[in-house]
Every structure is written in C-alpha cells, then in structure tokens.
Design a protein that fits this description.
This protein is of the alpha/beta class. The protein has a domain at about 185-230. The chain is about 30% helix and about 30% strand. The protein contains nine helices and 15 strands. The chain has helices spanning about 25-30, 40-45, 50-60, 80-85, 100-110, 150-160, 185-210, 220-230, 260-265; strands spanning about 70-75, 90-95, 115-120, 135, 160-170, 170-180, 235, 250-255, 265-275, 280-295, 300-305, 320-330, 335-345, 355-360, 370-379. Strands 6, 7, 8, 10, 11 and 12 form a six-stranded antiparallel sheet that branches. A five-stranded parallel sheet has the order 3-2-1-4-5, sandwiched between helices. It has a four-stranded antiparallel sheet with strand order 9-13-14-15. Helix 7 runs antiparallel to helix 8. The chain starts with about 25 loop residues before the first helix and ends with a strand.
C-alpha cells in the first residue's frame, strides 16, 4: 500500500507552484495518471484511521458545513464531497484533475447529491469557481506529510477561493522525528554488500568471456547502489517499542496562513533523549499528525486528530518514514541527541524530497561523540 512507487495516492490532485518550471504533461504522467485508477482510491478508502478521522471531523462539526459552500481539492472518488453534502452543505465544488472525476460524478448521482455536489475536472490552479467558499476540505498529505507537494494546490485554492471567515479541513499539521531501533539497518547493508559482490562477479565474467574491462564503472555503480539501498528512506509501520527516545516536532503548520515558501525548505534544530537501556540507534523515524480545529473565530465543536505515529492498535497507509544509519550506534538511557534536520525538494522532481540529518550524541557519562551527518532521499 504505502510502499508503492507513487506513495500515498488518494483523493487529491493539483500541480505544485513551488517550482517555476514544472512541465504539466510530465507531472501528469509521473504523478496524476495513477490516481485515475480505482485500486488506488480503494487503498485510501480502506485506511480506517484516515476515513474515520475525516468522517468524524465532518459529522461532529456540522455547523461548519450546514448551509455553507465547500471546496474539495482533489476529490478523487468524491467521498469527502459526498460527506460534506450529507452534512448539509448548500453547494460543494469537487475538483479532480484526472478521469476519476467520471467515477466521482457517478457516485454523487448514486447518493442523490447531484443537485449539491458539482464535480469539476481540471487542475486546481486552472479552475474558476462562481463564488468564494466557506470551507476547503482536502486529503493532501503525502509520505512524511510533504512528499508529493500537494499542499501547494491547497494553498492556491485557499488564497483564491476561501472567504476571510472560512475554515480549513484539516486546519493544522505537524511533523515529528524520533530515534529508533530496527533490524532493517542490517538487512539493507547486507543487500548493498550482496549487490556489490554481484557487480565484481559481473566484472570478472565480462573481462574473461568478452575481453572488456568495465571496472572503471565500479565507483558510479557503488554510488547508485548506496543511494538505493542505504540512503533512500523506507516506508514502515513501526511498533512503539522501536522508538527509543523522545519525539520532537520539526514543523508546525497552520493551514490557514502557511505559504509555499514556508514548506519549500524545512530547517529544524531539535533534541531528543534516549529512553531505552543499552540499545542501538539504528536511525530516525518521521511521521505526522493533522488536526481539525476550525479557526479561532469559528472553532470546531469537536476537535479531531489524525495521527500516523507508531501504534500497537492501528496502522495507516502512510506509515512512518525511516532514515537508517550505517552502521548503527550504541546508545543507552540518558544519552542526549542534538539533531539538525533539513528537507528540500528534489531538483529532478519537485514532488520528491531530499533530507539531511546531522547530529551529536552526548553520552550520559558526559562523553561527546564526534558529529555524524547523513543524506537521504524520500522517493
């Protein structure tokens, strides 16, 4: 589910305005085309944590929807637009860039809401509405919140179409980071070493049988395999006991006021304290939560949270993003970590992310270990 190449495809669409030279045709081919497939929608619709959070947010806060105008950014199957209509909205504009819009129209009609919900096929940046709206609802969150850069389209919709008194669903979002232990670190290193062993066998065979020495390509091949096996973050559903230290917030977003510039380049300096006895620091895990609070002037009657934190009781299709260290580091209870985190959009694809983590470990005995630095890719 969450580990597919296209990540967290779902009820959303749009194009990023955070990059000045995004080719819409290429973006559609790489990103949106898969969202027109019903199996992707089914994956999202089967995520009970996701579904129940949005369902409860709408139906426990009907005062935000009853008699109001609503914009659903990236409606996908149309489920959020249908709920808004069922909660009493006067008019719902459901925008979808792909042919999934045709399925959404059928669902709207089958649920007797065609007089309320209008499905519009087109990118959010290009669509023109006949009026401003009271509510913008969207499920825009990608891996580690910002992968896919879908929030750009929500910001565009907000700035163009939300009334000054309007509310955002969700209203707030936070990104978290925590130290973890995981057997995946050893597994991925073993995979990398196996790949290199196979490369050297290939070199020997090619020279012996075909008379061509290809060893000059060893360095770029090793860099390519290192990125694939050791530097690309992993999707995982962690158990809470794999988190070995305190979690810290690396970004807090107010969806009503955030700008694209606020999320283009993330920088954070955080600290964590190891809470487990003698263990291995195998990496860091990132996750997010979003909240449905309404606004200060028009608060929710019932605040709802959707979290993707490690849990014994549930998992989401987002899971957590895992950044593995090679080799792992021995740590113990009371050790302190000072962490500098940065995340930027990939220059090759604005929907993917590049992360740098630098950190120092101060042992409980007072010893300060040399600083470490690692680069990762969220792909």
């Amino acid at each position: 589910m969450g580990s597919s190449a296209n990540g967290v495809a779902g009820d959303r669409t749009g194009t990023s305005n955070g990059s000045s030279s995004v080719d819409k045709g290429v973006d559609f081919a790489n990103y949106f085309c898969t969202y027109a497939l019903l199996y992707h929608q089914k994956e999202m619709l089967c995520d009970r944590v996701r579904m129940e959070a949005y369902y409860n947010a709408v139906f426990e806060n009907k005062h935000h929807f009853h008699g109001k105008t609503v914009l659903d950014v990236g409606t996908g199957s149309g489920i959020l637009a249908i709920w808004a209509g069922q909660a009493g909205a006067r008019k719902v504009y459901a925008v979808e860039a792909t042919k999934m819009s045709e399925h959404a129209r059928e669902l709207v009609k089958a649920n007797n809401l065609e007089d309320v919900v209008e499905v519009i096929e087109g990118s959010m940046e290009d669509v023109t509405l006949p009026e401003k709206v009271d509510v913008i609802i969207s499920e825009w969150m990608g891996y580690f919140l910002l992968r896919e850069s879908m929030f750009d389209s929500v910001i565009c919709a907000r700035d163009r179409w939300l009334k000054p008194t309007g509310v955002m669903y969700p209203s707030n979002a936070r990104m978290w980071l925590a130290p973890i232990r995981s057997g995946l670190a050893n597994q991925k290193m073993s995979d990398y070493e196996g790949s290199m062993d196979d490369w050297f066998y290939f070199l020997d065979q090619t020279k012996t049988y075909y008379g061509v020495d290809m060893s000059v390509l060893t360095k770029p091949f090793a860099e390519e395999q290192k990125k694939y096996y050791l530097q690309t973050s992993l999707w995982n559903n962690l158990h809470p006991n794999q988190v070995i230290g305190t979690a810290a917030i690396i970004k807090d977003i107010d969806c009503l006021t955030a700008t694209v510039n606020d999320i283009l380049n993330l920088r954070a300096s955080i600290s964590s304290s190891i809470s487990s006895e003698e263990t291995r620091l195998c990496g860091f895990a990132g996750w997010f939560d979003v909240h449905f609070r309404g606004s200060k002037e028009n608060p929710a009657q019932q605040e709802i949270e959707l979290t993707t934190a490690p849990s014994e009781d549930y998992s989401t299709h987002w899971g957590q993003q895992v950044f593995l260290l090679h080799p792992p580091i021995s740590v113990s209870e009371g050790d302190d970590l000072n962490i500098n985190f940065s995340m930027d959009r990939s220059k090759e694809n604005h929907r993917l992310m590049e992360v740098e983590l630098s950190y120092e470990i101060k042992k409980s005995a007072g010893t300060l270990l040399p600083p470490f630095r690692n680069k990762f890719y969220i792909e």
